[in-house]
Design brief:
Elements lengths: L1 H22 L5 E7 L5 E7 L4 E3 L5 E5 L2 E10 H13 L3 E8 L3 E8 L3 E8 L4 E7 L3 H9 L1 E5 L2
Antiparallel strand pairs: 1-2, 2-10, 3-4, 4-5, 5-9, 6-7, 7-8, 8-9
Organism: Agathobacter rectalis
Protein name: DUF4367 domain-containing protein
Keywords: Signal
Length: 153
């Protein structure tokens, strides 16, 4: 009887470990640091889970399963201000989202229902980032949500 209880306890423990391991998910990321014309060094990091990837060249390309989704390049803080002004003052662009956090401020817009763009200004820097996506609003938002940006000091 004791042997049976030991075997049963051992089996329950093994099943618990297997279930626990299956429930774990792995997070992976890829990051590149770019030296920008503004003099800043900017680290761009992408959460690469689920088949997402980013290239190290400019414009950087965000893809999923080898399909290009978004492309990004660096702009100046003045360029960022110009994009915000034009987007807010034109009839062909529709603002979808805007916001900020401790690292950056951004605006997202749709241009003639053909492209979904983000203009981002990295706080306390002269640098911005412009990201375009021709796939869909959902795709653009998913790519953006996977990105983090930081100024390397």
């Amino acid at each position: 009887m004791k042997n049976l209880l030991k075997k049963l306890s051992c089996m329950v423990l093994i099943v618990g470990v297997v279930i626990g391991c299956c429930a774990c998910s792995t997070n992976s990321s890829k990051a590149y640091t770019f030296k920008v014309d503004t003099g800043d060094q900017v680290k761009v990091e992408l959460n690469t889970a689920d088949g997402y990837d980013i290239t190290s060249d400019l414009p950087f390309v965000i893809s999923k399963d080898n399909k290009t989704l978004s492309q990004g390049t660096f702009i100046t803080a003045d360029d960022y201000d110009s994009y915000v002004s034009v987007v807010n003052d034109t009839d062909t662009a529709t603002v979808i989202d805007k916001g900020d956090n401790e690292t950056y401020e951004y605006i997202m817009w749709n241009n003639n229902d053909e492209e979904y763009d983000y203009a981002i200004h990295l706080k306390d820097s002269k640098t911005g980032i412009l990201i375009g996506n021709n796939v869909s609003e959902k795709s653009a938002k998913e790519c953006f949500s996977r990105l983090t940006f930081s100024i390397v000091k």
